[in-house]
């Protein structure tokens, strides 16, 4: 069996052009070559590969079974080369080859998804690695150099090369399922009652916040490193706890969870900020990503405040309506 030759990129591009155009003459116009050159190029490619790519018996060339199989490979090679050239062009302009992003699990998921979708469109040649962590986990990744950009709550670290800049906040609400003992108590709920009930607490996998508790009021706690697990356990009635308002909005509306008002605990606003190393200035893609994350969080916060305002107005109207109906009695 003769050895298979090595096709050139030009031959593969002509091959795909003929397949897409449907004829040698149309392909010639597409690649700006003479028809005889296109026919010669395909004949040479067939000779190198040792297979017939087109049937030429009819009025227009038709792909053979081998041609259909190899066309997918030809397209893939062409796309890879185009991607490599685009990446090289980006590198010449100072564009990063890769970005490692670490994001706090409390960052609104819907806002993050939209930013990531826009990033993929804006920077198709930049590889983005994403890691979601809680509390000090994001800062730890930036300190260690495993992430170049982070979004996290404020965490004190003994590393002057790591800076934190506030970009917004997330509202945390205290919730429990309707079947929970605290749910049946009229608010504000006394601290003594809260201390006796199991609290589900999001914990830090690192040592950066060791010895510090955030919003912990109960004597008995379950420490969870996964926000999704905490959410599931709240819905299952295993305890009460604080959750991002955006994550439990549907549960509150559907009655799967109810909001608790504690006597000695005001509504908690969890500040989020950009975490970056000051000794490694961000490239164009990192700078774009930081700006979009800040803008997305601002839009989320504005929408959340408007929703809370509308909700408060609805509650006032309901109370007034209820009073009006009960007055005659």
Walk me through what this model shows.
With 329 residues, the protein is α/β, with parallel strands linked by helices. The chain has 2 domains: 9-92, Arc Repressor Mutant, subunit A (Orthogonal Bundle); 98-318, D-Maltodextrin-Binding Protein, domain 2. Helix content is 47%, strand content 19%. Strands 3, 4, 5, 6, 9, 10 and 11 form a 7-stranded mixed sheet that branches. Strands 1-2 form a two-stranded antiparallel sheet. It has a two-stranded parallel ribbon with strand order 7-8. Helix 1 (9-21) crosses helix 3, helix 1 crosses helix 4 (65-92) and helix 2 packs across helix 3. The longest helix is centred in the C-terminal third of the chain and has 43 residues, at 284-326. The chain is elongated, with a radius of gyration of 30 Å. The N and C termini lie far apart (101 Å). Residues 323-329 have low confidence and may be disordered.
Helix content: 40-55%
Average pLDDT reading: 84
Order of helices and strands: HHHEEHEHEHEEHEEHEHEEH
Assign the CATH architecture of the largest domain: 3-Layer(aba) Sandwich
Q: Bin the strand percentage.
A: 15-25%
Summed up, the domain count is 2
**Assembly classification:** single chain
For the record, the CATH class of the largest domain is: Alpha Beta
Number of strands: 11
Which regions have little confidence, pLDDT < 50, spanning 5+ residues? 323-329
State the major sheet: 7 strands, mixed
Distance between the termini: 101 Å
Please compute the radius of gyration using only Cα atoms.
30 Å
Instruction: Quickly give the structural class.
Output: alpha/beta
Please tally the helical runs, counting DSSP H or I stretches of 4 or more residues. 10
Overall form = elongated
* CATH fold label of the largest domain: D-Maltodextrin-Binding Protein, domain 2
């Amino acid at each position: 069996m003769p050895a298979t030759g090595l096709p050139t990129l030009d031959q593969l591009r002509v091959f795909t052009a003929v397949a897409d155009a449907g004829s040698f003459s149309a392909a010639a116009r597409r690649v700006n070559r003479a028809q005889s050159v296109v026919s010669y190029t395909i004949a040479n490619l067939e000779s190198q590969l040792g297979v017939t790519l087109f049937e030429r018996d009819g009025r227009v060339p038709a792909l053979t079974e081998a041609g259909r199989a190899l066309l997918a490979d030809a397209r893939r090679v062409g796309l890879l080369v185009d991607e490599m050239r685009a990446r090289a062009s980006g590198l010449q302009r100072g564009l990063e080859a890769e970005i490692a992003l670490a994001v706090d699990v409390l960052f609104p998921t819907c806002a993050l998804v939209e930013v990531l979708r826009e990033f993929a469109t804006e920077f198709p040649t930049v590889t983005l690695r994403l890691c979601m962590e809680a509390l000090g986990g994001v800062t730890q990744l930036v300190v260690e150099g495993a992430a170049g950009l982070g979004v996290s709550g404020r965490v004190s670290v003994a590393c002057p090369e790591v800076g934190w800049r506030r970009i917004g906040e997330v509202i945390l609400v205290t919730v429990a399922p309707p079947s929970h003992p605290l749910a049946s108590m009229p608010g504000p709920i006394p601290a003594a009652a809260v201390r006796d009930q199991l609290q589900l607490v999001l914990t830090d996998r690192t040592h950066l916040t060791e010895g510090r508790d955030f919003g912990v009021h109960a004597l008995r706690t379950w420490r969870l490193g996964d926000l999704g697990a905490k959410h599931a356990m709240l819905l299952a009635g295993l305890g009460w706890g604080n959750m991002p308002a955006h994550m439990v909005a549907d549960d509150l509306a559907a009655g799967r969870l109810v909001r608790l008002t504690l006597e000695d605990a005001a509504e908690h606003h969890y500040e989020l900020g950009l975490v970056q190393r000051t000794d490694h200035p961000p490239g164009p893609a990192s700078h774009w990503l930081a700006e979009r994350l800040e803008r997305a969080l601002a839009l989320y916060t504005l929408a959340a405040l408007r929703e809370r305002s509308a909700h408060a107005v609805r509650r006032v109207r309901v109370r007034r309506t209820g009073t009006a109906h009960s007055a005659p009695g």
